[in-house]
Amino acid sequence: MSESGGDRGRQIATEARDRVRFEEEALELADQVYRVARRFVRTREEAEDLMQETYARAFRSWRSYTPGTNLRAWLLRILTNLNIDRGRRQQRAPQMQALEANDYYLYDKLSEDNDGISDEDRVVERLSQDDIVSALAEVPHDFRDVIVLVDIGDFSYADAAQILDIPVGTVMSRLHRGRRILKGALAETALEEAGT
After folding, report:
1. Computed over its alpha carbons, how large is the radius of gyration of the chain?
2. CA 171 to chain CA centroid, nearest Å
3. I need a surface site. Which of 46, 94, 129, 139 has the fewest CB within 10 A?
4. pLDDT tops 60 at residue 153
5. What is the DSSP string of 140-152?
């Protein structure tokens, strides 16, 4: 075998080992990627599709990942970008109406009959996991993406900004607004359930 043929063989073998290592490390994060995907969409099927698309794109683009950097953040950036594309395809634009003080009427109503339990505990007590997923799915996706990454994925503001490719200040603003929208939706759901 010629010297150049031997070098080429070693290069192919090294690349194959690197790809297998990358795929193994990426698949170890599958549960975390699925949990984030599940928070982005309404159904388990949509989450599975989004996760499958994420891994398909990651495996096609594996050479663009820099070994030794944050693989979880890299995968979640792909997931987030796919979700944003999905949202655009569905022509779901964020609602931009101003929040009024009375938007929290329902949430405030829960605190009127205070029996020593905090408002948040009473709201959570009345809600099921499905209620929370449904309420989160109602949050416009620009805000939901930030909530999912920071509050559920435990990413720092800086990491979320990098994943979403937006400034840190925008992350903080969207997080604040998204949390308020989510609290209102959860309070409304809790009141509906209390009335039945």
Report:
1. 21
2. 13
3. 129
4. yes
5. -HHHHHHHIIIII
